[in-house]
Amino acid sequence: MSETSAVPEGALTGIRVIDLTRILAGPFCTMLLADMGAEVIKIESPSGGDAIRTQGVIKDGMSWYFAQFNRNKKSVTLDLYTDEGKAKLSALLESADVLVENFRPGVLAKMGFDEARLKQLNPKLIVGSVNGYGSTGPYVDRPSFDFIAQAMSGFMSLTGEIEGEPMRAAPPMADLIAGLYCAFGVVTALAARYRTGEGQYIESSLNNSLISMMAFLSAEYFATGKPPARSGNNHAIVAPYGMFKAKNGAIAVAPSNETYAIRFLDAVGLGHLMEDDRFRTNADRMRNRVELLEVIDRETEKESVDHWIEVINGAGCPCGRVMGLDEVFADPQVRATEMVLDVDHGDSGIIRMTGFPVKMSKTPPRIQRPAPQLGEHNDEILGES
Q: Same domain, yes or no, for 42 and 189?
């Protein structure tokens, strides 16, 4: 749907964000802020702008990749290697609430915008930084991208088939999580500024963001000193759990604790296994997992995927099918929650993109404007054409 009708103001309406980010992690952060109503001014080089303007599928002059992650933003072109460009950026920062950048640590300072200069320009300014490894430590000067963070955070070592090679996740998890954390940091700093009247620096990094997502896996390592092994589609500490055969495909089932395990096994006619000494407790089931999964598969492959989705969910245990994106975006649940948006991009036509995962009753996120053309808002923001 195209959202142009009058709706309530966003939660961040009135907040001005100067966006020096490019590619994905930083732009995802500022997209989240823009979706919530912030005025995000994307500063781009006059010689081409953000690199992802020319990446991915391009139709009628617009990259659909760029369009998705730069919706709701304004574009201004400045050459930050010139005194004139730096002076114009300084003027924008004087009236801004937030600055977000994703340069390597120290680059912004070398451009003339170190902490002292920024505080002089605007003591209330909140400065958000997304980088590879953080601003301290031996790797501070290394470049990084999502794939490197997936490798160095331990994420890849835990992803993939049990006997296979380490595997990256297809979505750029490090970029997205780091961007999400930075956005969380920004809104938290805004809340703190409401009390103190002062800005502050916040930082997220690709590597640390993925490390923080290790959840029970890092807990197991800290408790035992033993690195967890890859478990494929099985759960590292719970059984049964994972993919099971059906007559015409496979089902994903997630009995994450004893209650759900009982519901699942009862639903597939194997409730008696809970009285078997091999499977009585989760510890027993983990020790004998291969045998347990074989018993379950022999039973579940007697019926269809649709049958088991109905029966297992009906028993109160989470169950679903493995879906491709064509199925996902046609799914009635996805449509009902408006996770598909059609946004009018003028001469570039209607561009379809994912919707807003956070729903708010009083200040909902919305499409205020499509992704901008390069320098589209120079006149509005800088007073020049």
A: yes
